[in-house]
Amino acid sequence: MPAKKNPKHASAASFHNYYSPLLKLLALALLLLWLSRLLFYLFNLQYFSHLGAGEVLRILVFGLRFDVATLFMLNAPFIILMTLPLAVRKYRLWRFSAMFLYLLANSIGLMTNIADIVYYRFTFKRMTADIFSYAANDISLATLLPQFLNDFWGYFLLFGLFVVLLVVAVSRINILPIKRKVYPWLWHTLQVFGFVAAMAITVVGIRGGLQLKPINIITAGKVSEARNAAMVLNTPFTIIKTFNQQNLSRTEYFDQTTLDEIYTPIIQPSDSRGLSRNGSPLNLVIIIMESLSAEHVGAFNKNQESYKGFTPFLDSLMPHAVALRGFANGKQSIEGIPAILASMPSLLDKPYINSAYAANKFNSLAELLGAEGYQTAFYHGGTNGTMDFDGFAQMAGFDNYYGRTEYNNEADFDGQWGIFDEPFFGYFADGLSAMKPPFFATIFSLSAHHPYTIPEKYKGHFPEGNLEIQKTIAYADFALRKFFDKAARMPWFGNTLFVITADHTSEAWLPEYKTKTGMYEIPIIFYAPGSRLPTPAVTVADQIDIMPSALGLLGYDNPFVAFGQNIFDSKEGMAVNYISGVYQLITDSLVLEFDGTNSRSLYNYKKDPLLRQNLLTTNLREAHRMEQTLKAIIQQYNNRMIDNQLTINP
After folding, report:
1. Contact, 331 vs 121, CB < 8 A?
2. Which of 154, 393, 432, 554 ranks highest by number of CB atoms within 10 Å?
3. 6 is a domain residue
4. Which residues have C-beta within 8 Å of that of residue 367, sequence separation ≥ 6?
5. Domain ends where: 242, 265, 285?
6. 3-state class of 576 per DSSP?
7. Is the pLDDT of residue 239 over 60?
């Protein structure tokens, strides 16, 4: 008669060790996240040259907190499948599913980290969730991807290497049976406790510790200065943290009376009459040049030895115009358009056009001038639908939108983005001649976009420069010259106010354009060939100042909402920016960084262009005054967005 098995000494051969492979795979994923952070720094060393070795090491160490949080965010499903105390874990399909989720989540996370090695040079911040809406709205993405693969193949190889390491690790991981004997009841009890412990560790890891509030993008400010936030953070963390984060929080820094005394976006035009010619109101034409950083403009860089710039036409026009070295409001085209045409700053983690507030009623140049009898039109040579510009134009009140479809001549298609600047500017000039005065029209150029293509007939015609974009800046300046040559022969030319600016800046080469102020510097130019423009009352201008300033010059006399100011009728010039949870206020010589609660730094960017000397503790009075102004702007912006109070009459 066979002996009965003693359950107290039952073999554990059917029990497996799931925790050892789990820890090994998580350790590898964490290592790769950290290595991608190190590579982000090494490949963008020029943008962090102000950091000493000690600070770099400190950031790399403390940045691990964000890597750990990201590790648990990405791998929570994998951890659950591996630690769930159920018998189904022994089945091959269950294990395959767990490993597949591990590979998928970590591959995506590493892909975004490596992509930001390149993308950071254009936005100066880690990507956020708005990248998905940006990509979804840009129907040129399918044609651009092959070009990106060609230009940045080395980074794709790097990503491929990381994925291979993950795949090899997964393929070599064996979930081995435990050979020693163990009581079944003890085994199952330990598995339950293990699962509970794993979930607790995962939650703490995602929160970034046991502190009251989970870590967020703004937590990076506790590690280093705001300008180093991109190095402290990692891209999957910023994307996850901003996913579905559309709503602003109501802000109550001041009571309403005090708030309005410090700052109000309600513009009450002065009684002064606007410019006119023979009693006729001026037309308004706003020209938005893609990526036209101040760095590319020769007239702004005369202090640079042997540097002529890439805008000879613009340089020749500026002595006959009011030309300010101004500031862009954001780092993307989708942020620049509302700032220029509706005085709408980008103080959200998402661009306004893609935010929950995009349906708000707002004042714009097209809407306000349209009500005064102006015919209005928006021109952009890109494929219709690109970045929702056509949708915004309709929301802003433009009568007509003209894009690649309306141009209807694919012979001038650049193969990627849309119509080359030179022919499209000519099309724009003809379109203006067909409009009935007074009119307001905007054109947004596009040739200075990666992959920086110029027409074949002009190959070798323009200077190359240190940056690949600079030859297309020279081509765009050439297209602008041709436009003005053509427009000058048209009857409406002398009765028109032109405003020329950029949507945002490009990648920088010179050190002073890689700082938190230099990364926003653009030209803002007012030119009226038939009129004498007044002298600006300020020396600092922001994109959001264009709308109130242009309306002031045109003599618009009704109150309206604009977050900028009329630079020809202001007491103090200023510019405001927002990036990665940090607000920035720029005055004629100072720049203040503020995280919504505390001021972080104060620099004199005129005397200290590389922003090396923080004056916050030595200039408390000025810092407090600027902080009060910035708080008032934030409160007006947040609360008016929430309450849909972006017009005088809602």
Report:
1. no
2. 393
3. no
4. 396, 397
5. 242
6. strand
7. yes
Our count of domains for the chain comes to 2
How many Å apart are CA 553 and CA 276, to the nearest integer? 9
Give every CB contact of residue 242 below 8 A, 6+ residues apart in sequence: 128, 129, 130, 217, 349, 350
CA–CA distance, 501 with 292 (Å, rounded to integer): 8
On the CB side of 572, CA atoms within 13 Å amount to 13
- CA angle 242-244-249, nearest 5°? 75
The span from the CA of 420 to the CA of 292, in Å, is 16
| Residues 229 and 262 both lie in one domain | no
**DSSP one-letter string for 276-302:** EETTEEPEEEEEEETT--GGG-GGG-T
Q: Are 513 and 302 in contact (CB under 8 A)?
A: no
Angle 113-114-115 from CA coordinates, rounded to 5°: 95
Model-wide pTM > 0.85: no
Tokens of 151: 């230009």
Residues 197 and 267 in one domain: no
DSSP assignment, residue 194? H
Give me 509's structure tokens. Answer: 């080469």
Residue 618 near residue 611 (C-beta atoms within 8 A): no
Residue found by looking up tokens 């709205």 in the block: 137
Strand pairing of 375-380 and 439-444?
Answer: parallel
Q: Measured between alpha carbons, how far is residue 624 from residues 261, 585, 599, 627 in Å?
A: 16, 12, 8, 5
My answer on whether 389 and 435 are in the same domain is: yes
Q: What percent of the chain has pLDDT over 90?
A: 61
Each residue's pLDDT tens digit, 449-471 = 888 999 999 998 999 899 999 99
Angle at alpha carbon of residue 343, lines to 341 and 349, rounded to 5°: 105
Say if CB 445 and CB 421 are below 8 A apart: yes
Q: How far apart are CA 571 and CA 590, in angstroms?
A: 16
- Are 59 and 197 found together in one domain? yes
pLDDT band for position 592 (cuts 50, 70, 90): very high
Phi, psi of 387, deg, nearest 5: 55, 20
401-to-366, 426, 441 alpha-carbon distances in Å: 12, 16, 10
Q: How do 582-586 and 575-579 pair as beta strands?
A: antiparallel
Residue 134's pLDDT band (boundaries 50, 70, 90)?
Answer: low
Task: Judge if 228 and 289 occupy the same domain.
Answer: no
Same domain for 174 and 302? no
Cβ atoms of residues 116 and 229 within 8 Å: no
Q: Is 18 helix (H, G, I), strand (E, B) or coil?
A: coil
Give the tokens for residue 78.
């994998």
Domain containing residue 311:
256-643
Q: What is the DSSP letter of 5?
A: P
Residue 306: CA count within 13 A, CB half-sphere: 2
Give the integer Cα–Cα distance in Å for 581 and 216: 9
Strands 582-586 and 590-594: antiparallel
- Predicted confidence band of residue 12 (pLDDT cuts 50, 70, 90): very low
For residue 172, the model assigns a pLDDT of 87
